[in-house]
Amino acid sequence: MRREIPARRKLLLYGLLSVLCVPFVFPTWWMVTSSFKPVNEIFAMPPRLLPLHWDFSSYSQVFTFQPFARQYFNSLYIALLVTVGTMAVASLSGYAFARIRFPGQNALFLMVLIGLLIPGEVTIVPLFRMFQSLGLTDTHWPLILVPVLGAPSVLATFIMRQFFISLPAELEEAARVDGLGQFGVFFRIALPLARPALAAVAIFTFLHSWNMYLEPIVYLSSPEKFTIPQALAQFVDAYGGPMWNVQLAAASLTSLPVLVVFVLAQKQFVEGLAHTGLKG
To answer: Looking at the DSSP assignment, which residues form a beta bridge with residue 182?
Structure first.
């Protein structure tokens, strides 16, 4: 029988959690509210939680200074392609490392994990030279292929492998008795059961691709091909100074949809981590 927490202790706990949330919630609150402030009011002292004079013009300026709608679409479709591609690669490779026995399996998996230890800055120059020789610079192909076949996919492969290892082997044995082959067992038994792990992989991958900054700077040069993080740095005035209200408006438009997606999918995210053995 579950013992209920006394009302006084519950109130104290909620109060403590509310105080601890302030350092995490306040930056987002400041960003959103400051996007509605005039520039001279953003850094006014003492700081105000709400604008003294509400100014909505910064949101219209976001779309007039540069092709922000196109750049927003670029980030969205790249993140979706990277997420789908990483889920496909990670689920297949994770299942292979978990269930298919072959010589050198553990050594090969260790070599794959070593990819997580190599910083992306180390490989950015040779990758740029490779894509340049293929004529793929100033295109979105490097932003799609590198994450799908690089370190983010390695982490996703590890998550999927840990999940497939935790599945009871009896499920697959019963499927083979019914006549399913290796691919049939994967697509009809293992993959449907891996939805929590796939949800965790999807969130990790989407956020990584959405926030990617170094790679777009290296590979892209045309403003209409920029992604969101690269576009945020372009909101400057004639003297090169940052247009704070416009930047904050663009940042609010960028981050709020991601926050909504994470809030809606947080249950699957936590469940996926719990099923992959990554919880503390």
So the answer is: none
